[in-house]
Design brief:
The complex is a heterotetramer, with two copies of chain A and two copies of chain B. Chain A is of the alpha+beta class. Chain A has helices spanning 12-22, 53-70, 101-118, 139-144, and strands spanning 2-6, 28-35, 44-51, 75-81, 83-85, 90-98, 121-127, 132-134. In chain A, the strands form two sheets. A four-stranded mixed sheet of chain A has the order 1-4-6-2, with helices on both faces. In chain A, strands 5-3-7-8 form a four-stranded antiparallel sheet. In chain A, a hairpin with a 4-residue loop joins strand 7 (121-127) and strand 8 (132-134). The two termini of chain A are 21 Å apart. Chain B has helices at residues 7-13, 27-37, 39-44, and strands spanning 2-5, 17-19, 52-55, 58-60, 71-75. Chain B has a five-stranded mixed sheet. Classes of the chains: A alpha+beta, B alpha+beta. Chains in contact: A-B, A-C, C-D. Strand 2 of chain A pairs antiparallel with strand 2 (28-35) of chain C, so a sheet runs across the interface. Chains A, C: This is Molybdopterin synthase catalytic subunit.
């Protein structure tokens, strides 16, 4: 199990490859990567991600451990960045390895649903108009937790 | 105890953390004290349904007890991922 | 949309990175990789994957196009190998890009469920005992299609 | 028409493809002709529930018509992915 909260970027492809190689007895590898995309109204200059340093790693570790306990996983990886990110930059990734594709998929979706709504990160959009907007939590993200 | 604010709660109150001596026994009691302080606190805590609270870095609820708690954090719903 | 049926190996990490970069306006990237794992009873020497050359690319293309039509995807990628593979080698991968993680996940799961049961590949296990076993289709794989 | 066999169907019959002249009008009729040929065909087609068929490289069914069909393929359930 690998969990990282970091300001610096990470190489998604290289991390995904290393994870797949390390778990090549497993059969099924799922990855998810989140990328900073433009604001709905356009004009995004940067995304600032604030977090709660004392709590973040602990929360991510608990979420990941719960996934490891609940599904039959060989390994799980979570990386989440904070700080100022440009459009197109990778914000975070998760990866799961299992003998069964269903477990690998479900665990990755679980991790994403919990990272969205239960890990202490807050996103702020910096727009070229000079305005800034805190991204509002979506009801659909809260509702997604009902599945688990 | 230490009280921490994040995201727009931090911006509205104007500081990221402060040390507070309180006799409140629950989070809701602490919120009442803070609201009574100044308008910026009243504004930040106007709608509790838009806020979340963590006690000693674990998500909690507004009716939770503050007994033994060293760190309280207030913030909007999280938007990670 | 990229679909490939090939005997040679592919670099999962490099392909995943290139796919994520090419779709970095999208927000959500999901990948799945299948790896040759040992037989349930152990002793796997190789996995031989037979396919139906005239039909395979057409079937994969139809499955992928259906996913593109059904979910809101920026792009989708499918690579599937045939021939003789050693344990630990990557057999196949899919990747999906969407503005929404739910679409990216569902489309990737749909692709996997259909590749499992509707693409003309057949796996044979070569064991160190000298015996060979055609991998039997699982009822659970057929049942997985009911979801869609 | 061309008739193709894959996986254990190919192994049981002992060849990957052959050219067959048939007056059968459905896949089921063709299967009956093949079964009557030799034991290895009878063995390969013993249990149709364990087989799949494709007509001109599209999955089809045993009651489908052979009219206009140029290529028939028989194989076990697929195991890709």
């Amino acid at each position: 199990m690998q969990v990282s909260v970091q300001e610096e970027g990470f190489e998604f492809g290289a991390r995904a490859e290393a994870f797949a190689q390390a778990n090549n007895a497993m059969g099924a590898i799922v990855t998810f990567t989140g990328i900073v995309r433009d604001a709905d109204q356009g004009g995004l200059v940067a995304m600032e991600i604030e977090h709660y340093p004392g709590m973040t790693l602990k929360a991510l570790t608990e979420i990941t451990q719960t996934a490891m306990d609940r599904w039959s996983l060989g390994d799980a990886l979570v990386i989440h960045r904070y700080g100022r990110l440009a459009p197109g930059e990778q914000i975070m990734m998760v990866a799961t390895a299992s003998r069964h594709r269903k477990d690998a998929f479900e665990a990755a979706e679980y991790l994403m649903d919990y990272l969205k709504s239960r890990a202490p990160f807050w996103k702020k959009e910096i727009l070229d108009s000079g305005t800034t907007d805190w991204v509002a939590a979506k009801d659909s993200d809260e509702d997604a937790l009902d599945r688990w | 105890m230490d009280v921490l604010y994040f995201a727009w709660v931090r911006e509205r109150i104007g500081l990221p953390r402060e040390r507070i001596e309180t006799s409140a026994t629950t989070v809701a009691g602490l919120v009442e004290e803070l609201r009574a302080r100044e308008d910026r606190y009243a504004a930040a805590f106007a709608d509790l349904s838009a806020l979340r609270v963590a006690l000693d870095q674990e998500l909690s609820s507004f009716d939770a007890s503050l007994q033994g708690v060293r760190e309280v954090a207030f913030f909007p719903p999280m938007t990670g991922g």
